[in-house]
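Please, structure for the following, as tokens.
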Amino acid sequence: MKSEELSVKSHKLWSDILSNEKINREEDFFDQGGTSLSLIELISKTKEYFSVTLKASDFEEGLSLEIYEGLILKSMNKEPQKVV
């Protein structure tokens, strides 16, 4: 997945979960209206949208959209490639 595509999809996901179109890439998820329940929803939707499994502990140092996208890219690069 290209980083531009990831950026668009992750922004849409955050917007839907937080019910806010104006997501600040550098502001923390919780400062933008996120709750513990919406974090669980974000983790669940991340698996559905990006086939990446994240844990709440991945966000110990905060969770901005920028950090979130970095975690997804890092996880995608770690995933074993299927041999065809």
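The longest helix spans residues 3-18. Residues 58 and 71 are 8 Å apart (CA to CA).
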